[in-house]
Amino acid sequence: MRYFLSILLLLGAVLTGGAQPISLAPGGRPRPATGSPVVPLAKGMAAPAFRLINTSGQAVALSDLRGKVMYLDFWFAGCKPCLAEAPAAAKLKQQFAGQEVVFAYISTETNVDDWKRSIEQHGLAGPTSVHLLDPEGRYATRAYHIDGFPTYVLLDRRSRVWSGNAPRPSDGLPAVKMIAQALAAR
């Protein structure tokens, strides 16, 4: 398993042009590299590109999901608040079933088995779900300036930021309204 993770990390570095890793502070929160400017995600800006590995070991890029509204969920298996959102996330996905919305779960796991087990145990899989591994938050988590978990980001069909701090699934109506607005925009 350690060999598999090492290959994933190496592949990620190659695919992202050798992005510098960040470390995780206690509690699994990413700690930005010193000297890196933090630019907040503003509505309308181009979403930072990423290329991560899915549960089948295939690379998935942000550009592969373009054309659909994307609700990005930054999480990790040991995050109790993240997992507490699972039932509300299932309801949210049901509300948008058959519509052009992708729920992309971006996990900072270092243990692939724990990651996959958590997806299964908490019912996170589904036809509109994409599960991506961002080991130790090195790539997408860093690019999106995620500093706590869970964090949600909403992207429009053109892969532009709709909200850099979208409502949680458990927020109910605000989350539904925001996704619906992004879907209605052309």
CATH superfamily: Glutaredoxin
Helix content: 25-40%
Strand order of the largest sheet: 4-3-7-6-5-8-9
- Examine the coordinates and then state which fold CATH places here, giving the name of the CATH topology: Glutaredoxin
Distance between the termini: 44 Å
Question: Counting H and I runs of at least 4 residues, what is the number of helices?
Answer: 6
CATH class: Alpha Beta
How many structural domains?
1
Task: Please trace the helix and strand order, writing H or E for each element.
Answer: HEEEEEHHEHEHEEH
Strand content: 15-25%
Shape: globular
User: How big is the Rg?
Assistant: 15 Å
Low-confidence runs of at least 5 consecutive residues:
1-37
Give average pLDDT, whole number.
84
Q: Describe the largest sheet.
A: 7 strands, mixed
By DSSP, the count of extended strands is 9
CATH architecture title = 3-Layer(aba) Sandwich
Structural class: alpha+beta
Short description:
30% of the residues lie in helices and 22% in strands.
Give the secondary structure arrangement, pairings included.
Elements: H1 2-15, E1 23-25, E2 29-31, E3 51-54, E4 59-61, E5 69-75, H2 80-84, H3 86-95, E6 101-107, H4 112-121, E7 129-133, H5 140-143, E8 151-155, E9 161-163, H6 173-184
Parallel strand pairs: 5-6, 6-7
Antiparallel strand pairs: 1-2, 3-4, 3-7, 5-8, 8-9
Protein name: TlpA family protein disulfide reductase
Domain Thioredoxin: 41-184
GO cellular component, one term: cell envelope
